[in-house]
Amino acid sequence: MKKIAIQGVKGCFHHAAVSKYFEGCNYKLMECSSFREVAISVSESNVDIGVMAIENSIAGTILTNYSLLSEYNLKIVGEVYMPIQHHLMAYPYPGQNIKDIKEIYSHPMAILQCELFIDTHPYIKISEYSDTAAAAKYISICRKKGLAAIASENAAKEYGLEIISKNIQTITSNFTRFFIIKNCYKQKNDYFNKASLIFKILHTTGSLSQILSLISSIGINMTKIQSIPIIQRPWEYSFYVDIIFNNMKDYEKMKKRIQKIPCLHQLSIMGEYQNGRITS
User: Fold this and answer.
1) Contact 132, 110 (CB under 8 A)
2) What residues does each domain of the chain span?
3) 2/123 Cα distance (integer angstroms)
4) What is the dihedral of CA 234, 237, 238, 240, to 10 degrees?
């Protein structure tokens, strides 16, 4: 049975990502209070796998999680994209509705994704919580009228709460991308068509352009480019790039040719895995 570390508690979106990616598999969840705890658990082999959110289609990239992957030398071995639907839920008091709610608890990211709904109820106090499902669990324990949480439908079922308002996220098409991570010494995937790379380049004019132009010229598709601050070196950055390819020979050609570019200081491969995004 696989042991999988997630940030949050049962009913959270990380739990949903695990359920989707590992459907049909036996696993045991390890609930972690922070992303750093997830990274440490994976790096020290206390668990087999970690699942970590990396970006949201509304709120953007979680830069600190890139730093954790590098700091603990972890590898990306898979990804999963999850639709995120936020609901307002409370303890099931008869007749309780949105007008009765005085305070809402949720994770800062969920609060950000529901700004329009929150702005239409300015009389409600907003309190940040460590995790959406943990906020739902807290409301369930309190059993207090007037308190509510923003979380998933699974969280409402897990903790016996009633959904007062459904789908309150500002943008209907809301997705979060999750990385599946392992200790770097574990065996890598046999088949992959996507890779996550980090470039450290010399700070010269056109250096980044040279790297990106080479990748493009080989016919490899870049799906994400993200600058990442280098810790303790203010205003200097590494560049994170996701690439997708259909031909493994093109990928190997790119790696060989890119090493010959004078401005490249260091190339690190964060992960090689299968593209998790289903496109129509």
Assistant:
1) yes
2) 2-83+174-183, 87-165, 194-271
3) 46
4) 130
For 123-170, what is each residue's pLDDT tens digit? 999 999 989 999 999 999 999 999 999 999 999 999 999 999 999 999
> In the CATH hierarchy, which fold is given to the domain comprising 87-165?
D-Maltodextrin-Binding Protein; domain 2 (3.40.190)
The per-residue pLDDT for 76 is 96
Question: What tokens does 228 get?
Answer: 């990442």
- Report strand pairing: 49-56 vs 27-32: unpaired
State which amino acid sits at residue 163.
Answer: I
Contact 240, 222 (CB under 8 A): no
Mean pLDDT value of segment 170-193? 84
C-alpha span between 179 and 65 (Å, rounded): 10
Task: Return the H-helix or E-strand segment holding 248.
Answer: helix 248-258
pTM (2 decimals)? 0.88
Burial profile 36-52: b = 16 or more Cβ within 10 angstroms, e = fewer: bbbbbbbbeeebbbbbb
CATH number listed for the domain at residues 194-271 = 3.30.70.260
Q: pLDDT per residue over 83-108, tens digit each?
A: 999 999 999 999 899 999 999 999 99
Q: Distance between CA 69 and CA 229 in Å, rounded? A: 14
Structure tokens given for 208: 């980044």
